């Protein structure tokens, strides 16, 4: 899922204070699961933003709503009602959702309330860890299901650097060394031969090096536009 964190309150207030009526809009997908941008968080944020003490003059009037996915243009155009008088939307979605809204409701300003942080997973309740950087050419088959792009601080492809110590990464004592984990996993899987294969330099074109990536599934619409 995409993980995001709420921006500092002062930053949000500074971004919205010039508007008269703001729609605080939650998103019902990833950011709901990571407890940062769902309906409940939108309600909480709206209550906090409504406090007079944050403003030197009249605060904006707030409305609050949530939609299942802000990152689907068809969905937001069909189902998202923008109340009359709204002069800005404060979106609690990831950056993809914010941009989808900004395109769909142009020229209405859409303000991000979250910092989109990473593509991750929940290893235990309340903890999310980065797992993937969307490199476009997945090599997990060779690395025992552990991603060296996202989980090694240097995104190394051919084993650990010299800084790996006691199974931890040199960038932080509490960060497991991804390559120590990969080797241990491959050993358990009896597939250490994958570790011995030398990986040639990665082609980053599928990873976005040539501009925004697109995916078109035929038969679902009119294709690229
Ligand atoms: S190898 Fe690439 S696609 Fe696979 S998990 Fe890592 S970053 Fe994601
Ligand atoms: S110590 Fe391990 S995880 Fe950290 S940069 Fe080196 S190889 Fe990567």
Overview of this protein structure:
This protein is of the alpha/beta class and 225 residues long. It has two domains: 2-118, Rossmann fold (3-Layer(aba) Sandwich); 136-200, no CATH class. The chain is 28% helix and 19% strand. The protein has nine helices and seven strands, in the order E-H-E-H-H-E-H-E-H-E-E-E-H-H-H-H. The chain has a four-stranded parallel beta sheet, sandwiched between helices. Strands 1-6-7 form a three-stranded antiparallel beta sheet. Strand 6 (114-124) and strand 7 (127-132) form a beta hairpin. The chain is elongated. The model has no long low-confidence stretch (mean pLDDT 95). Bound molecules: iron/sulfur cluster (2 copies). One iron/sulfur cluster is lined by residues 152-154, 156, 160-161, 163-164, 169-171, 177-179. One iron/sulfur cluster is lined by residues 132-135, 138-140, 147, 149-150.
Structural class: alpha/beta
CATH class of the largest domain: Alpha Beta
- Major sheet characteristics: 4 strands, parallel
Low-confidence stretches: none
What fraction strand?
15-25%
Q: Can you list the ligands bound to this structure?
A: iron/sulfur cluster
**How many individual β-strands?**
7
How many individual helices? 9
Using the CA coordinates, give the radius of gyration.
22 Å
- General form: elongated
Q: How many structural domains can be distinguished in the coordinates?
A: 2
The overall average pLDDT, rounded, is: 95
Order of helices and strands: EHEHHEHEHEEEHHHH
Task: Tell me the helix content.
Answer: 25-40%
What spatial order of strands do you see in the largest sheet? Answer: 3-2-4-5
CATH architectural grouping of the largest domain? 3-Layer(aba) Sandwich
| CATH-defined fold name of the largest domain | Rossmann fold
Q: For the terminal residues, how far apart are their CA atoms?
A: 27 Å
